[in-house]
Automatic annotation (TrEMBL):
Segments for region (Disordered): 447-467
Family annotation (InterPro entries): Diverse_substr_monoxygenases (IPR051260), Luciferase-like_dom (IPR011251), Luciferase-like_sf (IPR036661), NTA_MOA (IPR016215)
Organism: Aspergillus calidoustus
Family statement drawn from the similarity comment of this UniProt entry: Belongs to the NtaA/SnaA/DszA monooxygenase family.
Keyword presence, Oxidoreductase: yes
Name this polypeptide is given: Putative Alkanesulfonate monooxygenase
GO molecular function annotation: monooxygenase activity; oxidoreductase activity, acting on paired donors, with incorporation or reduction of molecular oxygen
UniProt domain Luciferase-like: residue ranges: 35-401
Compositional bias (Basic and acidic residues): 449-458
Amino acid sequence: MAEQPTKKKQWILNGFTMSTPGHLAPGLWRHPRNRSAQYTDLEYWTDMAKVLESGKIHSIFIADVLGPYDVYKGPDSFDPGLPGVAQIPMADPFLPIAAMAAVTKNLSFGITASTTYENPHLLARRFATLDHLTKGRVAWNAVTSHLESAARNVGLETQIAHDERYKMADEYLNLTYKLWESSWRDDAVVKDAEQYAVPGRVRRIDHRGEYFKSAGPLTTEPSIQRTPFIFQAGTSTAGKAFATKHAECMFLAGLEPTAVRKSVEDIRARAIEHGRDPNSIKTITGILVIVDETDEKAQAKWEDYLQYVDLEGAATLFGGWTGTDLSRFDDEEDFRFTGPGAIQSLVNAWTATVPGTDGLKWTKKRVAQEIAIGGPHARAIGSPSTVADILERWIEESGIDGFNLSYAIAPADFEDIVKYLLPELRRRGVFWDDYVATTTRENFLQDGKGPRLRDDHPGSQYKWAAE
């Protein structure tokens, strides 16, 4: 009997965006094909959702920040980021979700929300409501927030210390698990001739912790997933400890596959320490994809985009991400040999991975140019075959499960991915023909275990099962 071919791993693909005219491409809002300046119109969001669902993309992953980037030419100056849109203005990522859900059936919605600045009971209610309205298609990108400007915006003098923010986040998630999983018994809502919900099957949780208090119960009845699918992007020691305990999908930064593989292996080892199945935590990385019929057409598209780049906006983003003010350095200074160690490491990674840069001097202008479209992520530019080769190499060498696909212009770059790239990925057997389910957790995990938290997840201990 002939040996059956091994089925290839099915990739996770998300559309990566922000509720702003400029996510990772300052200045590109001016491009004639870019609709991102329409981010305040519902039609922009519903059209993007329909494009992504037409390609069977897993989710639209919406990043967020709660303050302006104000390091570059600082202190406290956000003016350099305004003309090109360095993630300011920025709107609430939650509000377009219901409209996008109304025009789709399977696309999921990953929404960023802060455990440091959001009230846990109110956030739990918001997610539960959206889980109802989307029929189980919401995910929470749980972040602790890192900007001084965000702390000041919510009334603090300065940020809470880094590791303490993660201690707060751990308690925060345990509290929300209690609200979602433990305040309503699974059979509390009956909707029969006598009653809507049964007394005695809804209870207070009376959480009194070091950082938070909440009596409960959650006022929203249980939704399909109860707890939304959880994304996380912790990279520090405290961040990884938190993420490998709670996350179901981790977003890993990195410019080079073998470096990311180290993170993937570390995550799997830490998951086992938490008593979790390491395969229950999916891993993704960010990548900019510019694709067209041929390599030449894709490269021409890239060159066209570069004409609209705003380098002041790029330097503003760099300051926000790294805490380093590029304006303080000399114009001809080479960052491969000077500057903070973390920036030298970043520049060395670029030198190793970006063709034609080995002999270049990495001045502050060159650094800004490098992140001006797509941020500090890898790039895949070319024909469907060329881009697919790059992505396959990433999957094979890093061990990740998929990608957050960023863009220069929206939704046009997503339209190109659907038109050109996805047929090639399907031909190679690495991306599904259709969604396997209607809920986020089922589509991401594909383990046949339903929409609820898995038994090895710490939130599952709070489930209040029907008797």
